[in-house]
């Protein structure tokens, strides 16, 4: 991005522009993992690829009013989640993304699942809220295309194409 002697990363641009950042990733391929903590952020790009191979997550969201639009997110055996939405995030839109390749079992617990999109909170007072997961293509994931933890509220999931989810073994049973 070349801003103020920046490091030419999406994370560097997110950190520089802060709250309200609207970043067009263009048609480039970016090999990095992102953490969005500023409110009002939008990431979008025609033919943009976020290659999270070698990272535990593609995008972690801990903010309000975030939109991830039209991005391809690629993972590998080192990647547990394409997008993870943590509490207390509110009003999160994940739309028209192509998310695939995640196969790392959850490193935070004994779950064998990897996730295309994962949302979770810790109790009834600390939840991700108002999630809009629409028109995404999620495939080639080990275990779960979309997973909502017990502490997730007011979520709309519609028009997604989820396919080629690999079975994993949990308590001696195949699961996907």
Shape: globular
Q: What is the distance, rounded to the nearest whole angstrom, between the alpha carbons of the first and last residues?
A: 39 Å
Order of helices and strands: HEEEEEEEEEEEEEEEEEE
Total helices: the number is 1
Question: What do the pLDDT scores average to?
Answer: 93
Largest sheet, described in full? Answer: 10 strands, parallel
- Helical proportion, percent range: under 10%
**How would you describe the oligomerization state of the chains in this entry?**
single chain
The proportion of residues in beta strands is over 45%
Structural class estimated from helices and strands: mainly beta
| Weakly predicted, low-confidence segments | none
| Alpha-carbon Rg, integer | 15 Å
**Record field, number of beta strands:** 18
What would you say this structure looks like, in words?
- The chain has 176 residues and is mainly beta.
- 5% of the residues lie in helices and 49% in strands.
- The strands form three sheets. Strands 2, 3, 5, 6, 8, 9, 11, 12, 14 and 16 form a ten-stranded parallel beta sheet that branches. It has a six-stranded parallel beta sheet with strand order 1-4-7-10-13-15, with helices on one face.
- Strand 17 and strand 18 form a beta hairpin.
- The longest helix has 8 residues.
- It is globular.
- The model has no long low-confidence stretch (mean pLDDT 93).
């Amino acid at each position: 991005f070349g801003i103020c002697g920046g490091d030419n990363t999406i994370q560097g641009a997110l950190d520089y522009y802060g709250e309200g950042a609207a970043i067009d990733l263009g048609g480039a391929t970016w090999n990095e993992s992102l953490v969005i903590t500023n409110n009002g952020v939008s990431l979008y790009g025609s033919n943009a690829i976020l290659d999270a191979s070698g990272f535990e997550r593609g995008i972690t969201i801990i903010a309000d009013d975030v939109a991830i639009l039209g991005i391809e997110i690629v993972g590998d055996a080192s990647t547990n989640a394409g997008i993870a939405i943590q509490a207390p995030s509110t009003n999160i839109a994940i739309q028209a993304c192509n998310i695939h390749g995640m196969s790392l079992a959850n490193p935070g617990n004994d779950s064998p699942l990897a996730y295309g999109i994962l949302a979770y909170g810790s109790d009834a007072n600390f939840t991700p809220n108002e999630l809009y997961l629409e028109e995404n293509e999620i495939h080639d994931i080990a275990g779960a295309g979309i997973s909502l933890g017990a502490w997730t509220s007011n979520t709309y999931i519609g028009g997604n194409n989820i396919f080629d989810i690999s079975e994993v073994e949990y308590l001696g049973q195949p699961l996907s």
